[in-house]
């Protein structure tokens, strides 16, 4: 094994993912480790791809969207690829904005209910 490769176990630890998650990403071909017998090793390309996968998951992208994102990353971007990326990013920004608005509304409702409870409690004294 060369210095720039890490083992399956090291990859799980580095990215704080379960072996099942890592195997699934391989199964759906988001990652392609080097194999020696049953052992798997990951080079800098796979580490970079895993970084992008987890970033995409944090942003709320589906695995299919992440697959498209990785294709853009691999090909270093044509004009069309960047346009697709911008559209994907804008759709996800819209989703996140709606989620933020929903959470703010839920928080306001909960704060109001809490205040109502405090008011009722104060009347009981």
Integer tally of domains: 2
Q: Span between N and C termini?
A: 73 Å
Strand line-up in the sheet with most strands: 1-3-2
For this structure, what is the CATH class of the largest domain? Mainly Alpha
Shape: elongated
Strand content: 5-15%
- Alpha carbon gyration radius: 22 Å
Number of strands: 3
Task: Summarize this structure briefly.
The protein is mainly alpha-helical and about 120 residues long. Helix content is about 75%, strand content about 5%. It is built from 5 helices and 3 strands.
Describe what you observe in this structure.
The structure is a single chain. The chain has 125 residues and is mainly alpha-helical. It folds into 2 domains: 1-59, Multidrug-efflux Transporter Regulator, Chain: A, Domain 2; 77-125. 74% of the residues lie in helices and 7% in strands. It contains 5 helices and 3 strands. It has helices spanning 8-15, 19-27, 44-59, 63-75, 79-124; strands at residues 6-7, 34-36, 39-42. Helix 3 (44-59) packs across helix 4. The radius of gyration is 22 Å and the shape is elongated. The termini are far apart. The model has no long low-confidence stretch (mean pLDDT 91).
